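Q: What would this chain look like folded?
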Amino acid sequence: MEQQNSGPKKPNLSVKRMAAGGACLQVRTLAIRRHRSPLRLAKPPLPLVFKKKDSAHMKIPLFSLAFIAGLVTGCVSQESGIKSDLVATLRQLDKERIQAQVGADAAALDRLYAEDFIGIGPSGTVRTKAQVIADFTSGSLRFQSITTDDVQWRVYEDTAVETGRSTMNGQDRGKAVPRDNRFTRVWVKRQGRWQLVANHYSLLVTQQ
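A: My prediction, written as C-alpha cells:
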C-alpha cells in the first residue's frame, strides 16, 4: 500500500542553491562585462612599429616624386623648344624685312609691317607704315646694304622684342643714313601672323 504524505513537500535545497548560483554567476558576468567595457575604450593607442616590409611602401612616394620631376623637366624642355622655334621664325621674318627694304618691295613691306606701325630713324624722323612704303617705292628712302649684329630676342607669348646693332648704307631724302646704330624692334602676333609694330634707332656713338 502506498504511503500517504503527512504534509507539504519541502523544497529541494540543492536545486535552489544551483539556481541561485547560476543567477549570481550571470549577474557577476554582466557586472564584469559592464565594468570592463570602459577600460577597453580607454586603452592607450598602440605604438607605431615600422617593419622591413614598410620600406616597399615608402618606394611609392619616391617614385611619384621622380615621376613629377620628370614631367616638370619635360615641360621646361618643351617650352624651350617652342621658344627656339619662335625665334627662328622671327629671325626669318626680319631677314625678309631687310631684303624688302633693300629691294623696295612694297608687297613684302605691306605684309611684314602692322597697320599701326610706328618707326623712328636715327635722325629722329618718324614714319608710319604708309609713309615707309611710300618713301621706299618713290626712292626717297633707299638702302644698298643692311646688316645686323649682337641680336637678342625676348618672347612674351604673342609679343617679341628684338634688340641689336645695325650697320646701314643708304640715303634718306638725299642725305646719307647714319651708318652705325642701335635698334629696338617690337613684333606682335595677330591672327596667327607676326608683324612689326615698332622700330626705333639710336645713333651709336663711339666711346673715347
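Confidence is low (pLDDT under 50) at residues 1-6, 11-25, 27-32, 34-39.
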